Amino acid sequence: MARRGALPVDPIAEAKRQWLMHGWTDAAPGMSVVTSIIRAQQILLARIDRALKPFGLSFARYEMLRLLAFTREGRMPMASAIARLQVHPTSVTNTVDRLVRDGFVTREPHPDDGRATLLTLTDAGRDLAERATAALNDEVFTRPGLSGEDTDELVSIIARLRKDAGDFEDPRPMPDPL
């Protein structure tokens, strides 16, 4: 879809006005939040897609590579990757299939659990993860379009929403050393 420039009115504010005019006053703020977050996601994903296009990566493929690159040995069980990425197992399987096909990841039997599969980052996958991360840092993450203060506040607000939805729990305090 071609971008036509800025609209003369904020369509989300107009939608909220319409919600209020139709008597949906209790739902209007929530509708505004939901549609604002979804539109922000579209904007950010478009920026991410532009940054990753030269590498032939989707964000899902990039996330898998980066997750594996963060591990000490470049490997982790498939079940751990599914849990950390918080997406449906079928989506992770499809992502891994493409990364294996392209030589960026391998599947190996788990040495201690015959039912489990280890995902292992190849040297080519590690190199691609590093180059794609540099591009994302430069083109997207360093300048997300908000001030540092706004960024911190927004992340905090969204973290509360995610926590209340059961997305994560606060870490348990570490016990005192003996």
Task: Describe the overall structure.
By secondary structure, the chain is mainly alpha-helical. It has 2 domains: 11-55; 57-140, Winged helix-like DNA-binding domain superfamily/Winged helix DNA-binding domain (Arc Repressor Mutant, subunit A). It has 7 helices and 3 strands, in the order αααβααββαα. A 3-stranded antiparallel sheet has the order 1-3-2. Strand 2 (105-109) and strand 3 form a beta hairpin. Helix 2 crosses helix 6 and helix 3 crosses helix 5. It is globular and about 65 Å long. The termini are far apart. The mean pLDDT is 93.
Characteristics of this structure?
7 helices, 178 residues, 7% strand, three-stranded antiparallel beta sheet, 2 domains, globular, mainly alpha, Arc Repressor Mutant, subunit A, 59% helix
Q: What name is given to the CATH topology of the largest domain? A: Arc Repressor Mutant, subunit A
Count of domains: 2
Please report the distance between the alpha carbons of the first and last residues. Answer: 61 Å
In what range is the share of β-strand residues? 5-15%
Query: What topology, given as strand order, has the largest sheet?
Result: 1-3-2
> Gyration radius, to the nearest Å?
21 Å
How many runs of DSSP E, i.e. beta strands?
Answer: 3
- Net shape: globular
Enumerate the spans where pLDDT stays under 50 for 5 or more consecutive residues.
none
What is the string of helix and strand elements? HHHEHHEEHH
Secondary-structure arrangement, i.e. CATH architecture of the largest domain: Orthogonal Bundle
The secondary structure category is mainly alpha
